[in-house]
Structure formats: C-alpha cells, structure tokens
Amino acid sequence: MNLSVFLELRFWLLVVFSLVVPAGIYGALLATRSISRLAVLWFGVALVLIAGVDVYLLQTLAALAHKTASLTDDVVFSSELTVALYVLPLVFGGIGVNLISHVLLRHLTEAEGQFDREHSGD
User: Fold this and answer.
1) Taking the model in full, what pTM does it have?
2) What residue ranges do the domains of the chain occupy?
C-alpha cells in the first residue's frame, strides 16, 4: 500500500480526466470555425462520460485516503474540500448534457419543419 493517494495511478488519472482531457475538448470546440452536429454530440457524450469517471475516481480515492497514514489525503479527500472536488464533474456533466440537448433539439426542430413543408398541401 502506498503512503499517500497522491502517489496512486488513480490520482493521476483523476488529474488527466479532470483537467487535461476537458481542456482539450473545450480547446477543440473553441478553435473550430465550423463543426458537425455529430462531433458536437460526441463531445457532449465524452464530457458526460468524463464526469462519471471523475466521480468514480473521487470515490475510490476517498476510500483509499482513509486507509493511508498521510493526513494530507484525509484533508483533501475526506473533508469539506471534497465537495469542491465534485464541482468539476458536475460542470462537465452539465455542459455535456447541454451539448447533447442542443444537437437533439436542433435536429427535432428541423425534422418538424421538414414534416410541415412536406404536409403543407394536405
């Protein structure tokens, strides 16, 4: 057993999934002048999945923090500070759901318009 959860692979995966991957997704979304609906949909799904992975990693790290001798682990993963750590997955999941919803609503609006145009003579 490691002396600290900060030495665990799961901690570094949490850093990657909480900071690096979402920053890459946001950068890609902001850098493109045009983007397909399918790409926006996949970015949204990716953000929701990242939120799920983050919550899982936070919970496993909190369980590990109780078993380590380090007090720093307990301060970060077993205190009120833990609530702050859950804000990032909450934001990622919310933005991902909004992206998915945006794509679905645009599709449905256009499908309704197409239906109205096709059946306007009836």
Assistant:
1) 0.81
2) 5-118
